[in-house]
Specification:
Cardiolipin synthase, globular, alpha/beta, 456 residues
């Protein structure tokens, strides 16, 4: 009866055929062990929890979505993309924004710290990794000083990325009186299913009018100019204008999802005046009600590409449908360039990637290896017009399991800048010869690592 009930549940709730077959096999072959594993790791309780919270709050997440900012129709090649993403996210495409590209912690941290110093009303900070090292300590010092002068401060760190058993920065901020929370963190065995789910977003919003987002964590390793032992290069963005409201909404929802505290709208969700000309929109993804939305946006952009697609990612392990769309774009004459690190900070991911890129080379796409230091940037530019930047890697974990945030922009000048940034890292072209020249044991290792793509 137990096995039959589990099989029925799998048939009703698992959309992915391979996943459904795998779980049914485990439950049938190992009835009791399989049942425990499925109940712990096979059921997406986050979606159910998100829907429950939305129902509990009468206005739900939509309470964070009322905007007085203006929309503007987009004509031309990317009009279908703008329409699709609008329907997908229920967020408007807003104009009047100013977006500045910042490189590494050397370029981003001083501006972030200055914004915190100048805060008058509120600070919302979300970070996957927030270390209690030299730069982390400096951020903590600035946040504590802001809190003492009366600024409303909220800090959310990931329950795994910022330390699962020990999280020094969390305890330091809490002891200093700052409301700080750990996303999806619990040491209770019955909450173990949430361990595999991470808040990978990096968001800072100050006074509702200045925002920062991208791929940059808070750690000494991102200060590349200081030559840390394991340097991590990255790209972050300073944002001003109406789009900051959407950025703040995401952070506010994550805070509510974690703590059940509804933030004061007048402090944290203010309307920002227009300061530029860029059209932009926030796109979120996660295993809740935003499942796969970032991937859908990227897939639609790939189908509309006519000239070029540039992708820069620290890990390249997407699913088959993403590889297929990129391959088809290359076959129809679009120049597809994918830039990945020569060596990332996770060797197993590098092994799996080697096997994953072979189909793209067959279609004519170009794969490039970027020289050290390890580059953690997540950038996508299509036809030097549309850009997509943020926290999401191109792997199954980011596209399906993590809570991620990206931003789409329709700005030829910004796209040109990002396109040049990506092309500067085209250091070594990966060829069929490189893949074929691997030893037999290396190929076996790489193929074996690829089996663990959903968990890497």
């Amino acid at each position: 009866m137990l096995t039959a009930g589990l099989v029925l549940h799998i048939l009703l709730h698992k959309r992915n055929t391979s996943s459904a077959i795998g779980w049914m096999g485990i439950c049938v072959l190992m009835p009791y062990t399989g049942a425990v594993l499925y109940l712990m790791f096979g059921i997406n309780r986050v979606t159910r929890l998100a829907r429950k919270l939305i129902n509990i709050r009468a206005d739900g997440r939509q309470a964070f979505s009322r905007q007085s900012t203006w929309n503007r129709d987009l004509d031309g090649q990317f009009a279908p993309l703008a329409l699709m993403i609008g329907k997908l996210t229920s967020r408007p495409l807003v104009g009047g924004n100013s977006i500045t590209c910042l490189h590494d912690g050397d370029g981003a941290y001083p501006q972030m710290l200055q914004a915190i110093d100048e805060a008058q009303k509120s600070i919302l900070l979300c970070s996957y990794i927030f270390r209690n090292d030299r730069i982390g300590g400096l951020f903590a010092e600035k946040l504590i000083a802001a809190h003492k002068r009366g600024v409303a401060v909220r800090v959310l760190v990931d329950g795994v990325g910022s330390g699962y058993f020990l999280s020094p920065i969390y305890h330091h901020l809490r002891r200093s009186g700052i409301p700080c929370a750990r996303f999806m963190h619990s040491l209770y065995p019955w909450k173990m299913p949430f361990i595999n789910l991470r808040d990978h977003r990096k968001i800072l919003v100050v006074d509702g009018h200045t925002g920062f987002m991208g791929g940059l964590n808070i750690a000494d390793e991102n200060l590349v100019s200081t030559r840390p032992r394991h340097p991590v290069s990255d790209t972050h963005f300073r944002i001003r204008g109406p789009i900051v409201r959407q950025l703040a909404e995401v952070a506010a929802w994550d805070w509510y999802f974690t703590t059940r505290e509804t933030l004061d709208r007048d402090l944290f969700l203010q309307e920002a005046p227009g300061t530029g000309t860029t059209l932009a929109r926030i796109v979120t993804a996660g295993p809740d009600t935003d499942l796969e939305k970032i991937e859908y946006a990227m897939l639609q952009a790939i189908t509309l590409a006519r000239k070029s697609i540039r992708l820069m990612t620290p890990y390249f392990l997407p699913g088959d449908r993403f590889l297929t769309e990129l391959g088809l774009a290359a076959l129809r004459g679009v120049q597809v360039d994918i830039i990945i690190p020569l060596r990332s900070n996770h060797r197993a991911l590098d092994w799996a990637c080697a096997t994953n890129v072979s189909p793209l080379l067959n279609s004519g796409a170009r794969v490039w290896l970027a020289d050290p230091p390890f580059n953690h940037s997540k950038l996508m530019v299509v036809d030097k017009v549309w850009s997509f930047v943020g926290s999401s890697n191109l792997d199954i974990r980011s596209l399906r399991l993590n809570f991620e945030i990206n931003m789409e922009t329709y700005d030829a000048a910004l796209a040109e800048t990002l396109d040049e940034t990506i092309c500067q890292h085209r250091n070594h072209r990966l060829t069929h010869y490189d893949l074929d020249n691997r030893g037999r044991l290396t190929k076996l290792r790489d193929s074996f690592a690829r089996l663990f793509m959903p968990y890497l």
